Amino acid sequence: MASAPDRPGLRTRAWAALRHVDPYRSVKAALGALVIVSVGITTFLVLVAVNVEIEMRVIAILALIASLLITQFVAQGLIAPLDEMTDTARAMARGDYARRVRFDRRDELGELGRTFNSMAADLEAADRHRKELVANVSHELRTPIAALRAVLENVVDGVSRADPETMLTALRQTERLGGLVEQLLDLSRLDHGVVPLRRRRFEVWPYLATVLKEANMSKGQGHARTDVHLHLDVSPPELTAHADTERLHQVVANLIDNAVKHSPQHGRVSVRARSGGQPESLELEVQDEGPGIPAQDRDRVFERFGRAAGSEGKQDGGTGLGLAIARWAVDLHGGRIRVAESARGCRMVVTLPGLGRLSD
Protein backbone atom coordinates (compact mmCIF):
# COMPACT_ATOMS: atom_id res chain seq x y z
CA MET A 1 0.00 0.00 0.00
CA ALA A 2 2.89 2.37 0.68
CA SER A 3 4.16 2.13 -2.89
CA ALA A 4 0.86 3.14 -4.52
CA PRO A 5 1.31 6.91 -4.06
CA ASP A 6 4.75 6.69 -5.73
CA ARG A 7 3.42 5.28 -9.01
CA PRO A 8 2.16 8.58 -10.49
CA GLY A 9 5.49 10.22 -9.72
CA LEU A 10 7.32 7.37 -11.41
CA ARG A 11 5.12 7.63 -14.49
CA THR A 12 5.66 11.37 -14.63
CA ARG A 13 9.42 10.98 -14.45
CA ALA A 14 9.40 8.26 -17.09
CA TRP A 15 7.19 10.39 -19.37
CA ALA A 16 9.55 13.34 -18.96
CA ALA A 17 12.57 11.14 -19.70
CA LEU A 18 10.97 9.97 -22.97
CA ARG A 19 10.37 13.53 -24.12
CA HIS A 20 13.60 13.65 -26.14
CA VAL A 21 12.57 10.62 -28.20
CA ASP A 22 8.92 11.65 -28.66
CA PRO A 23 8.46 13.33 -32.08
CA TYR A 24 5.33 15.09 -30.83
CA ARG A 25 7.14 16.70 -27.91
CA SER A 26 10.60 17.37 -29.32
CA VAL A 27 11.73 18.98 -32.58
CA LYS A 28 14.96 17.02 -32.34
CA ALA A 29 13.02 13.79 -32.16
CA ALA A 30 10.85 14.85 -35.10
CA LEU A 31 13.93 15.55 -37.24
CA GLY A 32 15.49 12.28 -36.12
CA ALA A 33 12.32 10.44 -37.05
CA LEU A 34 12.42 12.15 -40.46
CA VAL A 35 15.94 10.85 -41.10
CA ILE A 36 15.06 7.35 -39.90
CA VAL A 37 11.93 7.17 -42.07
CA SER A 38 13.80 8.46 -45.13
CA VAL A 39 16.60 5.93 -44.68
CA GLY A 40 14.07 3.18 -44.04
CA ILE A 41 12.13 3.97 -47.23
CA THR A 42 15.32 4.07 -49.27
CA THR A 43 16.49 0.74 -47.80
CA PHE A 44 13.09 -0.81 -48.47
CA LEU A 45 13.15 0.33 -52.11
CA VAL A 46 16.66 -1.01 -52.57
CA LEU A 47 15.59 -4.42 -51.26
CA VAL A 48 12.59 -4.37 -53.57
CA ALA A 49 14.81 -3.47 -56.52
CA VAL A 50 17.16 -6.35 -55.78
CA ASN A 51 14.32 -8.84 -55.65
CA VAL A 52 12.35 -7.65 -58.69
CA GLU A 53 15.30 -6.47 -60.76
CA ILE A 54 14.30 -2.81 -61.04
CA GLU A 55 16.95 -0.37 -62.22
CA MET A 56 18.71 1.61 -59.54
CA ARG A 57 17.86 4.86 -61.32
CA VAL A 58 14.18 4.24 -60.74
CA ILE A 59 14.84 3.33 -57.11
CA ALA A 60 16.86 6.51 -56.60
CA ILE A 61 14.09 8.64 -58.13
CA LEU A 62 11.39 6.98 -56.01
CA ALA A 63 13.47 7.33 -52.86
CA LEU A 64 14.12 10.98 -53.62
CA ILE A 65 10.43 11.69 -54.21
CA ALA A 66 9.41 9.89 -51.01
CA SER A 67 12.05 11.74 -48.98
CA LEU A 68 10.97 15.11 -50.41
CA LEU A 69 7.32 14.43 -49.62
CA ILE A 70 8.05 13.40 -46.05
CA THR A 71 10.45 16.33 -45.56
CA GLN A 72 7.84 18.75 -46.93
CA PHE A 73 5.21 17.37 -44.58
CA VAL A 74 7.45 17.64 -41.52
CA ALA A 75 8.84 21.05 -42.54
CA GLN A 76 5.34 22.43 -43.00
CA GLY A 77 4.46 21.42 -39.47
CA LEU A 78 7.62 23.10 -38.14
CA ILE A 79 7.48 26.29 -40.21
CA ALA A 80 3.76 27.10 -39.87
CA PRO A 81 4.07 28.18 -36.19
CA LEU A 82 7.11 30.30 -37.04
CA ASP A 83 5.18 32.01 -39.84
CA GLU A 84 2.33 32.75 -37.44
CA MET A 85 4.73 34.21 -34.89
CA THR A 86 6.32 36.35 -37.63
CA ASP A 87 2.92 37.76 -38.65
CA THR A 88 2.05 38.44 -35.00
CA ALA A 89 5.39 40.14 -34.37
CA ARG A 90 4.83 42.40 -37.40
CA ALA A 91 1.36 43.30 -36.10
CA MET A 92 2.86 44.14 -32.70
CA ALA A 93 5.45 46.35 -34.42
CA ARG A 94 2.49 48.31 -35.84
CA GLY A 95 1.05 48.75 -32.35
CA ASP A 96 -1.41 45.85 -32.23
CA TYR A 97 -0.44 44.25 -28.92
CA ALA A 98 -3.68 42.25 -28.67
CA ARG A 99 -2.51 39.66 -31.22
CA ARG A 100 -1.53 36.21 -29.96
CA VAL A 101 -0.20 33.07 -31.62
CA ARG A 102 -2.71 30.23 -31.67
CA PHE A 103 -1.24 26.79 -32.05
CA ASP A 104 -1.30 23.89 -29.64
CA ARG A 105 1.97 22.01 -29.62
CA ARG A 106 3.82 20.10 -26.94
CA ASP A 107 7.33 20.52 -28.33
CA GLU A 108 9.86 23.34 -28.14
CA LEU A 109 7.84 25.40 -30.62
CA GLY A 110 4.86 25.15 -28.29
CA GLU A 111 6.99 26.46 -25.42
CA LEU A 112 8.25 29.24 -27.68
CA GLY A 113 4.66 30.16 -28.55
CA ARG A 114 3.61 30.31 -24.90
CA THR A 115 6.64 32.44 -24.08
CA PHE A 116 5.83 34.68 -27.05
CA ASN A 117 2.25 35.15 -25.84
CA SER A 118 3.50 35.97 -22.35
CA MET A 119 5.83 38.59 -23.80
CA ALA A 120 2.98 40.02 -25.90
CA ALA A 121 0.80 40.28 -22.79
CA ASP A 122 3.57 42.14 -20.95
CA LEU A 123 4.00 44.55 -23.87
CA GLU A 124 0.24 45.11 -24.02
CA ALA A 125 0.17 45.86 -20.29
CA ALA A 126 3.12 48.24 -20.62
CA ASP A 127 1.44 50.06 -23.52
CA ARG A 128 -1.82 50.32 -21.60
CA HIS A 129 0.06 51.59 -18.54
CA ARG A 130 1.76 54.26 -20.68
CA LYS A 131 -1.56 55.46 -22.07
CA GLU A 132 -3.11 55.49 -18.61
CA LEU A 133 -0.13 57.46 -17.31
CA VAL A 134 -0.69 60.17 -19.94
CA ALA A 135 -4.38 60.24 -19.05
CA ASN A 136 -3.56 60.44 -15.34
CA VAL A 137 -1.19 63.36 -15.89
CA SER A 138 -3.77 65.23 -17.98
CA HIS A 139 -6.46 64.58 -15.39
CA GLU A 140 -4.37 65.69 -12.43
CA LEU A 141 -3.02 68.84 -14.10
CA ARG A 142 -6.51 70.05 -14.96
CA THR A 143 -7.48 71.12 -11.42
CA PRO A 144 -4.53 73.44 -10.59
CA ILE A 145 -4.58 74.86 -14.11
CA ALA A 146 -8.29 75.67 -13.75
CA ALA A 147 -7.70 77.28 -10.34
CA LEU A 148 -4.77 79.34 -11.64
CA ARG A 149 -6.78 80.43 -14.64
CA ALA A 150 -9.67 81.49 -12.39
CA VAL A 151 -7.33 83.63 -10.25
CA LEU A 152 -5.78 85.35 -13.25
CA GLU A 153 -9.14 85.92 -14.95
CA ASN A 154 -10.52 87.52 -11.80
CA VAL A 155 -7.52 89.85 -11.65
CA VAL A 156 -7.73 90.75 -15.35
CA ASP A 157 -11.50 91.34 -15.20
CA GLY A 158 -11.18 93.50 -12.11
CA VAL A 159 -13.16 91.15 -9.91
CA SER A 160 -10.16 90.70 -7.62
CA ARG A 161 -7.22 92.94 -6.93
CA ALA A 162 -3.68 91.78 -7.47
CA ASP A 163 -3.02 91.91 -3.74
CA PRO A 164 -0.48 89.65 -1.99
CA GLU A 165 -3.15 87.16 -0.89
CA THR A 166 -4.46 86.67 -4.44
CA MET A 167 -0.95 86.38 -5.85
CA LEU A 168 -0.06 83.92 -3.10
CA THR A 169 -2.97 81.72 -4.17
CA ALA A 170 -1.74 81.88 -7.78
CA LEU A 171 1.78 81.08 -6.63
CA ARG A 172 0.56 78.05 -4.70
CA GLN A 173 -1.18 76.73 -7.80
CA THR A 174 1.96 77.28 -9.86
CA GLU A 175 4.02 75.42 -7.30
CA ARG A 176 1.43 72.68 -7.24
CA LEU A 177 1.65 72.37 -11.02
CA GLY A 178 5.39 71.86 -10.81
CA GLY A 179 4.98 69.35 -8.03
CA LEU A 180 2.31 67.39 -9.88
CA VAL A 181 4.49 67.08 -12.98
CA GLU A 182 7.10 65.31 -10.88
CA GLN A 183 4.67 63.39 -8.70
CA LEU A 184 2.45 62.06 -11.45
CA LEU A 185 5.47 60.63 -13.21
CA ASP A 186 5.73 58.39 -10.13
CA LEU A 187 2.68 56.57 -11.49
CA SER A 188 5.03 54.71 -13.81
CA ARG A 189 6.34 53.00 -10.66
CA LEU A 190 2.92 52.46 -9.13
CA ASP A 191 2.80 48.74 -9.76
CA HIS A 192 6.25 48.29 -8.21
CA GLY A 193 5.31 49.99 -4.94
CA VAL A 194 8.42 52.17 -4.82
CA VAL A 195 6.79 55.63 -4.82
CA PRO A 196 8.12 57.47 -1.76
CA LEU A 197 5.88 59.15 0.82
CA ARG A 198 6.86 62.42 2.49
CA ARG A 199 4.80 62.27 5.66
CA ARG A 200 4.59 65.19 8.04
CA ARG A 201 2.41 66.41 10.84
CA PHE A 202 -0.16 69.05 9.86
CA GLU A 203 -3.29 70.74 11.18
CA VAL A 204 -6.33 69.35 9.44
CA TRP A 205 -8.66 72.37 9.53
CA PRO A 206 -6.46 74.93 7.69
CA TYR A 207 -5.24 72.25 5.32
CA LEU A 208 -8.73 71.15 4.25
CA ALA A 209 -9.93 74.76 4.19
CA THR A 210 -7.24 75.50 1.60
CA VAL A 211 -8.25 72.47 -0.47
CA LEU A 212 -11.91 73.54 -0.42
CA LYS A 213 -10.97 77.11 -1.31
CA GLU A 214 -9.08 75.87 -4.35
CA ALA A 215 -12.04 73.66 -5.27
CA ASN A 216 -14.39 76.67 -5.02
CA MET A 217 -12.11 78.71 -7.25
CA SER A 218 -11.95 75.97 -9.88
CA LYS A 219 -15.72 75.44 -10.03
CA GLY A 220 -16.98 76.47 -13.43
CA GLN A 221 -13.62 75.73 -15.02
CA GLY A 222 -13.91 72.43 -16.91
CA HIS A 223 -17.51 71.79 -15.76
CA ALA A 224 -20.43 74.20 -15.34
CA ARG A 225 -21.18 73.58 -11.66
CA THR A 226 -21.08 76.82 -9.71
CA ASP A 227 -24.25 76.08 -7.75
CA VAL A 228 -22.90 73.36 -5.44
CA HIS A 229 -22.09 74.44 -1.89
CA LEU A 230 -19.01 72.98 -0.15
CA HIS A 231 -19.18 72.50 3.61
CA LEU A 232 -16.28 71.64 5.93
CA ASP A 233 -16.64 70.02 9.35
CA VAL A 234 -13.52 69.19 11.39
CA SER A 235 -13.91 67.86 14.91
CA PRO A 236 -12.13 68.75 17.06
CA PRO A 237 -11.03 72.00 15.34
CA GLU A 238 -7.44 71.48 16.54
CA LEU A 239 -7.27 68.00 14.98
CA THR A 240 -3.85 67.04 13.59
CA ALA A 241 -2.81 64.20 11.32
CA HIS A 242 0.35 62.63 9.93
CA ALA A 243 0.42 61.98 6.18
CA ASP A 244 1.87 63.04 2.84
CA THR A 245 -0.04 66.28 2.25
CA GLU A 246 0.50 66.29 -1.50
CA ARG A 247 -0.83 62.76 -1.90
CA LEU A 248 -3.70 63.54 0.45
CA HIS A 249 -4.46 66.61 -1.66
CA GLN A 250 -4.90 64.28 -4.63
CA VAL A 251 -7.38 62.22 -2.63
CA VAL A 252 -9.51 65.06 -1.30
CA ALA A 253 -9.47 67.08 -4.54
CA ASN A 254 -10.54 64.09 -6.62
CA LEU A 255 -13.27 63.10 -4.18
CA ILE A 256 -14.64 66.66 -4.10
CA ASP A 257 -14.44 66.94 -7.87
CA ASN A 258 -16.33 63.67 -8.27
CA ALA A 259 -18.95 64.68 -5.68
CA VAL A 260 -19.54 68.09 -7.30
CA LYS A 261 -20.02 66.54 -10.73
CA HIS A 262 -22.74 64.21 -9.51
CA SER A 263 -24.54 66.60 -7.18
CA PRO A 264 -28.03 67.89 -8.00
CA GLN A 265 -28.69 71.57 -8.68
CA HIS A 266 -27.94 73.71 -5.63
CA GLY A 267 -26.67 70.60 -3.90
CA ARG A 268 -24.31 70.34 -0.97
CA VAL A 269 -21.01 68.49 -0.63
CA SER A 270 -19.88 67.88 2.94
CA VAL A 271 -16.29 67.18 3.91
CA ARG A 272 -15.91 65.81 7.45
CA ALA A 273 -12.70 65.00 9.31
CA ARG A 274 -12.39 63.00 12.52
CA SER A 275 -9.64 61.21 14.40
CA GLY A 276 -9.13 57.64 13.26
CA GLY A 277 -8.49 56.31 16.76
CA GLN A 278 -4.70 55.92 16.46
CA PRO A 279 -2.15 58.69 17.11
CA GLU A 280 -2.54 61.35 14.40
CA SER A 281 -4.63 59.03 12.26
CA LEU A 282 -7.41 60.52 10.17
CA GLU A 283 -10.85 59.56 8.93
CA LEU A 284 -12.25 61.67 6.10
CA GLU A 285 -15.75 61.62 4.66
CA VAL A 286 -16.89 63.28 1.45
CA GLN A 287 -20.64 63.10 0.94
CA ASP A 288 -22.84 64.47 -1.81
CA GLU A 289 -26.58 64.53 -2.43
CA GLY A 290 -26.49 62.86 -5.83
CA PRO A 291 -27.94 59.54 -7.00
CA GLY A 292 -25.35 57.48 -5.14
CA ILE A 293 -23.52 54.39 -6.32
CA PRO A 294 -25.28 51.01 -6.66
CA ALA A 295 -23.94 48.32 -4.34
CA GLN A 296 -22.73 46.15 -7.23
CA ASP A 297 -20.57 49.01 -8.58
CA ARG A 298 -18.94 50.17 -5.35
CA ASP A 299 -15.71 48.27 -5.96
CA ARG A 300 -15.57 48.88 -9.69
CA VAL A 301 -15.62 52.68 -9.40
CA PHE A 302 -12.10 52.57 -7.96
CA GLU A 303 -10.75 50.83 -11.05
CA ARG A 304 -9.11 52.86 -13.77
CA PHE A 305 -11.71 54.12 -16.24
CA GLY A 306 -14.39 52.45 -14.14
CA ARG A 307 -17.71 54.22 -13.68
CA ALA A 308 -20.82 53.37 -11.77
CA ALA A 309 -24.02 52.71 -13.66
CA GLY A 310 -25.64 55.56 -11.80
CA SER A 311 -23.10 58.03 -13.12
CA GLU A 312 -23.49 57.22 -16.77
CA GLY A 313 -25.33 59.84 -18.66
CA LYS A 314 -24.38 62.59 -16.26
CA GLN A 315 -22.94 65.65 -17.89
CA ASP A 316 -19.16 65.60 -17.92
CA GLY A 317 -18.77 62.26 -16.20
CA GLY A 318 -14.99 62.62 -16.31
CA THR A 319 -12.39 60.15 -17.43
CA GLY A 320 -13.00 57.61 -14.68
CA LEU A 321 -9.51 58.18 -13.26
CA GLY A 322 -10.15 60.36 -10.22
CA LEU A 323 -11.25 57.63 -7.83
CA ALA A 324 -8.53 55.28 -9.10
CA ILE A 325 -5.91 57.92 -8.31
CA ALA A 326 -7.49 58.50 -4.90
CA ARG A 327 -7.33 54.79 -4.06
CA TRP A 328 -3.72 54.63 -5.21
CA ALA A 329 -2.71 57.50 -2.93
CA VAL A 330 -4.61 55.99 0.01
CA ASP A 331 -3.01 52.58 -0.58
CA LEU A 332 0.42 54.22 -0.45
CA HIS A 333 -0.38 55.35 3.08
CA GLY A 334 -1.51 51.87 4.05
CA GLY A 335 -5.03 53.22 4.47
CA ARG A 336 -8.42 52.33 3.10
CA ILE A 337 -10.98 54.05 0.88
CA ARG A 338 -14.51 52.76 0.44
CA VAL A 339 -18.07 53.66 -0.45
CA ALA A 340 -20.07 53.66 2.78
CA GLU A 341 -23.79 53.27 3.27
CA SER A 342 -25.74 56.49 3.13
CA ALA A 343 -29.41 57.39 3.25
CA ARG A 344 -28.88 59.87 0.45
CA GLY A 345 -26.19 60.41 -2.13
CA CYS A 346 -22.72 58.92 -2.08
CA ARG A 347 -20.50 58.82 1.01
CA MET A 348 -16.80 58.17 0.48
CA VAL A 349 -14.82 57.27 3.59
CA VAL A 350 -11.01 57.47 3.72
CA THR A 351 -9.07 56.09 6.70
CA LEU A 352 -5.37 56.90 7.10
CA PRO A 353 -3.37 55.10 9.81
CA GLY A 354 -1.19 58.06 10.86
CA LEU A 355 1.73 57.20 13.14
CA GLY A 356 0.48 53.63 13.51
CA ARG A 357 2.14 52.61 10.22
CA LEU A 358 5.43 54.49 10.43
CA SER A 359 7.31 51.31 11.24
CA ASP A 360 5.85 49.38 8.27
Any descriptors?
about 350 residues; disordered N terminus; Heat Shock Protein 90; single chain; elongated; alpha+beta; five-stranded mixed sheet; about 10% strand; two-stranded antiparallel sheet
Question: How does the SSE layout of this entry go?
Answer:
Elements: H1 6-17, H2 27-52, H3 56-93, H4 108-156, H5 164-184, E1 200-203, H6 204-218, E2 229-234, E3 240-243, H7 245-261, E4 268-275, E5 282-287, H8 322-332, E6 336-340, E7 347-352
Structure description:
By secondary structure, the chain is α+β, with helices and mostly antiparallel strands. The protein has 2 domains: 6-106, no CATH class; 132-357, Histidine kinase-like ATPase, C-terminal domain (Heat Shock Protein 90). It contains 8 helices and 7 strands. It has helices spanning 6-17, 27-52, 56-93, 108-156, 164-184, 204-218, 245-261, 322-332; strands at 200-203, 229-234, 240-243, 268-275, 282-287, 336-340, 347-352. β6 (336-340) and β7 (347-352) form a beta hairpin. α2 packs antiparallel against α3 (56-93), α3 packs parallel to α4 (108-156) and α6 packs across α7 (245-261). Residues 1-6 and 309-319 have low confidence and may be disordered.
Q: How much helical structure, as a percent, in the residues? A: 40-55%
| CATH homology superfamily name of the largest domain | Histidine kinase-like ATPase, C-terminal domain
Strand order of the largest sheet: 2-4-5-7-6
Continuous helix count: 8
Identify the overall geometry.
Answer: elongated
Strand content: 5-15%
Assembly status: single chain
What is the second-level CATH architecture of the largest domain? 2-Layer Sandwich
**CATH topology group of the largest domain:** Heat Shock Protein 90
Low-confidence stretches: 1-6, 309-319
**Count of extended strands:** 7
Order of helices and strands: HHHHHEHEEHEEHEE
Alpha-beta content class: alpha+beta
CATH class of the largest domain: Alpha Beta
Averaging pLDDT over every residue, what do you get?
Answer: 76
Largest pleated sheet: 5 strands, mixed
End-to-end CA span: 50 Å
Number of domains: 2
Taking all Cα atoms into account, the compactness measure Rg is 34 Å
